[in-house]
Known about the structure:
CATH class of the largest domain: Alpha Beta
Shape: globular
Order of helices and strands: HHHHHHEEEHEEEHHEHEEHEHEHHEEEEH
Strand order of the largest sheet: 9-8-10-11-7-12-13-14-15
Distance between the termini: 72 Å
Largest sheet: 9 strands, mixed
Radius of gyration: 27 Å
CATH topology of the largest domain: Rossmann fold
CATH superfamily of the largest domain: P-loop containing nucleotide triphosphate hydrolases
Number of domains: 3
Helix content: 25-40%
Amino acid sequence: MSLTDRLAAASRSRSEAPAAGSSSESTAPGTSPAKSSEPTEATRRRAAARDSADPFKELKRIVHGRLVSALGPTLYDAHLTQSDLEQQVRLALQTTLAEVDMPMSSADKSRISQEIADDILGYGPLEPLLRDPDLSEVMVNTFQDIYVERSGKLVKVDATFNDEAHLRRTIDKIVSKIGRRVDETSPMVDARLPDGSRVNAIIPPLALDGSKLTIRKFSEDPYTVEDLITFGTLNRASADLLDACVRGRLNILVSGGTGAGKTTTLNVLSSFIPTDERIVTIEDAAELRLVQDHVLRLESRPPNIEGKGAVTIRDLVKNSLRMRPDRVVVGEIRDAAALDMLQAMNTGHDGSISTLHANTPRDALSRLETMVLMAGMDLPVRAIREQVASAVDLIIQQTRLKDGTRRITAITEIVGMEGDIVTTQDVFLFDYAAGVDDQGKFKGGLASTGLRPRFLERLADHGVHLNPAVFVVGGTR
């Protein structure tokens, strides 16, 4: 049977299917019908809408199957480079499409070819979204509901997966490339794409309506401090201050909520580290892209299928101290690793940088204290606070505002202890009082409070000097 005949037969089988609500079996009077496992009427309507929107769906399925059968093991040949594999796939794809006896325009043929190539070589319907530089996040709620974040706002897109199995194959392709897995015994996974974009996937039975996939994209070129100034995340005066603090080997925490831009800011801060220093980075999924030459990247490892072999952030922090680091950069502190990080900061490894989740600098101190208690050590609260006050020099608060922009809203110095309280002072604060414009954008910026931080003498000891104009009120916005 020719491909055209097969497509026509598939079309007839769909048109001859029983109408929604009909049944070939009768239900006995007085009995309740058994719960059907068939798709709901709403699901059928959505499927019909997808089929009508893409008249070449069956064609793509058949061509895809032929292509996979023709190439076979070539797709998994470890000796082939990515460019050679792409060349072979596209050549085989052109040959297969040329054999199709079905009228279609050159634009349709080009589109079908690209979609099949994306599915085999990349991540299917996600590929065009990942190639779009204007998108910062891709969120797959179900195989047929995909949203993106564009300019800080959520927007639904037309792209869909064929079915749940198609989405699961794509998730497996992503996580398997870095040696991780996702299945019923381990239904949650954090992973990354080759460009460093962060990936989270969660599948049934934890995800009730089907698998969920969230990808936080990274730009092809890492953002620089000039980019953040252009975006309004910070201003020139605060950028000069942060540059001096990093070069002066202060211990810095970047605090903020999910999606506030902490990792981007951490990457920019790390770019201020001098090139002659040895840097160890520690992350759950390697995302940081440092420009220095002497960088050692460590990544935690989840347990295997037997529940063994896990290597935590805390394990890596302990190990990094034996690697003669000049700087330790931890992607995020979220558990008992906080205790080891504080001890590292207090025992000669100054200049360390990390992030944590918190809504304000004061909340960041409280959360740090809580995470230290998670280590199971019976430490007095005052002792923990003394460790925090001694170890941490600066907290940078990052916030995602209602207008979708990501701004640094506070740069706060840890001054010391007064009684049992860790004392702080704000060096820069975001000016919310400036209000918003007609488009709902915040007009304010990061402004100096006029207070001169006490760590200026420490910076001077390291040969780092700041222009006093940085702290002039009203001249830094």
